[in-house]
Design goal:
The structure holds 2 protein chains of 2 kinds.
Chain A lengths: L3 E4 L2 E5 L4 E7 L6 E7 L6 E7 L4 E4 L2 E6 L4 E6 L8 E8 L5 E3 L3 E6 L1
Chain B lengths: L3 E4 L2 E4 L5 E7 L6 E7 L6 E7 L5 E2 L8 E7 L2 E6 L8 E8 L7 E3 L3 E5 L1
Parallel strand pairs in B: 2-11
Antiparallel strand pairs in B: 1-3, 3-8, 4-5, 4-9, 5-6, 7-8, 9-10, 9-11
The chains are: A mainly beta, B mainly beta.
Chain lengths: ~110, ~120
């Protein structure tokens, strides 16, 4: 089955700087890679996703890249703001089937 | 956007009792729903996949007789924790697969279960 590894587990970034979180996956059949933001006591919120037919996707300050050959994908947040502080999870799988979550990255935006 | 609700948001029950958690897709029909469990400061662990009108598929290590899942309609799935024990205390989250045109999974807000 799918196995998703996520790094780093904790990341502290100065406000205004960029943050990068990286994930790898094991199952070459996976074609859907969402990223979620989770705030304390709440369910995960989809912030961006990418499918295996594209290599990069951007939405304002957030971008995701996918390297199918190497089986890794990354989340990039630019111009970080205090409200970006949260736990971020990557996941991999197929959209209509189960998706497997990485262990999460706790992002701290420092003033 | 698509909305998934869970009820209750919080529940406290005594050890040995059963508790039911509902997951509803409010504005779309979901043929597939998923149930996750999340312990503090940990990731979401998939418990089971629920398809409308058929038996749920449980992940390895999840006791199907303890965590009863029913997906009786295209908008409702329920998770019943039977004979709950303190170690079942956790954050339970459901998601619903929206199908066309988004092909995304939409997550509920979660249910905090505390077993005393």
């Amino acid at each position: 089955g799918e196995n998703v590894e996520q790094h780093p587990s904790t990341l502290s970034v100065q406000e205004g700087d960029s943050a990068v979180i990286k994930c790898t996956y094991s199952d070459s059949a996976s074609n859907y890679f969402p990223w979620y933001k989770q705030e304390l006591g709440k369910g995960p919120q989809l912030i961006i996703d990418i499918r295996s037919n594209v290599g990069e996707k951007k939405d304002q300050r957030i971008a995701v890249t996918l390297n199918k050959t190497a089986k890794h994908f990354s989340l990039h947040i630019t111009e970080t703001q205090p409200e970006d502080s949260a736990v971020y999870f990557c996941a991999g799988g197929r959209g209509d089937d189960k998706i497997i979550f990485g262990k999460g990255t706790r992002l701290h935006i420092l003033p | 956007g698509a909305v998934v609700s869970q009820h209750p948001s919080r529940v406290i029950c005594k050890s040995g009792t059963s508790v039911k958690i509902e997951c509803r897709s409010l504005d779309f029909q979901a043929t597939t729903m998923f149930w996750y469990r999340q312990f503090p400061k940990q990731s979401l662990m998939l418990m089971a996949t629920s398809n409308e009108g058929s038996k749920a598929t449980y992940e390895q290590g999840v006791e199907k007789d303890k965590f009863l899942i029913n997906h009786a309609s295209l908008t409702l799935s329920t998770l019943t924790v039977t004979s709950a024990h303190p170690e079942d205390s956790s954050f339970y989250i459901c998601s619903a697969y929206g199908g066309y045109p988004s092909y995304e999974q939409y997550f509920g807000p979660g249910t905090r279960l505390t077993v005393t």
